[in-house]
Design brief:
Length: 161
């Protein structure tokens, strides 16, 4: 966690499209060459604890990129960025970052710790109410697109140094 940029892939792989962020993290870890100052973590449903540790840590990253599934009413599989302050209402308390204080922790990192926070979202087709592993076809096709967006953000950031 002592890297300039930390990418957090969030989601529960047991509940369909909710596993999107974890799938993107796996893609980045297994199919790409990352800049040396970038760490990618598949945090699953444990992002809240990770963010809490970052808030308390003396050494913080300059940027956190969160990748997660959302329902913003867009076409399934659409990849887009969301500002923390514009999270869909159904995400402000869980954000599939899976616990109520998560969006607050992201805001605290941004506002009080001077960490740039970028949220890359994948529009879900659906999230089942019962265990059903595997992404929908629309979101599965977007994993590489989201991974490419993460890489673009880290490459652009590396070019500024």
């Amino acid at each position: 966690m002592h890297k300039d940029i930390i990418v957090l892939g969030c989601g529960n792989i047991l509940f369909g499209d909710d596993g999107f962020g974890s799938s993107v993290a796996d893609h980045l870890q297994n199919r790409t060459i990352l800049p040396e100052n970038v760490s990618v973590l598949n945090v699953g449903t444990g992002v809240r604890g990770m963010l809490f540790d970052l808030v308390l840590s003396e050494q913080k990253p300059r940027k956190i990129i969160v990748v997660d599934a959302v329902d913003a009413g867009k076409k399934a599989g659409t990849i887009f960025q969301i500002n923390i302050d514009e999270l869909p209402k159904n995400k402000t308390d869980d954000f599939t970052l899976h616990e109520m204080p998560t969006s607050n922790l992201l805001q605290e990192l941004r506002d009080f710790c001077n960490v740039e926070v970028v949220i890359i979202a994948g529009q879900i087709e659906s999230i089942p109410e019962v265990v059903r592993p595997g992404l929908s076809d629309a979101l599965a096709k977007s994993v590489a697109v989201a991974a490419g967006e993460v890489l673009n953000l880290t490459t652009l950031d590396c070019g500024r140094q």
